Amino acid sequence: MLDLHLPLMLFVLVLFLILLVLLNNMLFKPLVKFMDDRDASIAKDLEAAKSFSENTDELKAKADEIISKAKNEAAQIRQKTVDEEKALAGSKVEKKQNEIAQEYESFVTRLASEKENLKKELLSQVPLFKESLKAKFSKL
After folding, report:
1. What are the start-end ranges of the H helices in the chain?
2. Global pTM?
3. What are the pLDDT digits (tens) for 11-46?
4. E runs forming strands in the chain
5. Terminal CA-to-CA distance of the chain, rounded, Å?
6. Residue 54 C-alpha from the chain's centroid
């Protein structure tokens, strides 16, 4: 039936132990070391990501603050410019109204003088009109 060979079994056992030691040194230890290094690297990267995340939040808050300040300054500059332009437009309008008022006054005085001149001319022409009317009535 089955024969057990003790030297062959011892040889297989020794061979198995040698193979186990070789595999441990050549495969398992480097594999375990690689996995430990990888875990450490992942942990380090996670920490770096967390610090970057916190740093990003701080930078975002600073950026929001700078943007709000810039918007406020822009609004102030815009309002200042609008006020200056309104004042300039108001002064131009006032100047133009004064010019128009002066032109109107000169027009009214010219009109009054022309009216007086016309009246004088018509009054000087009244005797001629009377004569021409008499002549026309006499023809009738």
Report:
1. 6-23, 29-139
2. 0.44
3. 999 999 999 999 999 999 999 999 999 999 999 999
4. none
5. 179
6. 27
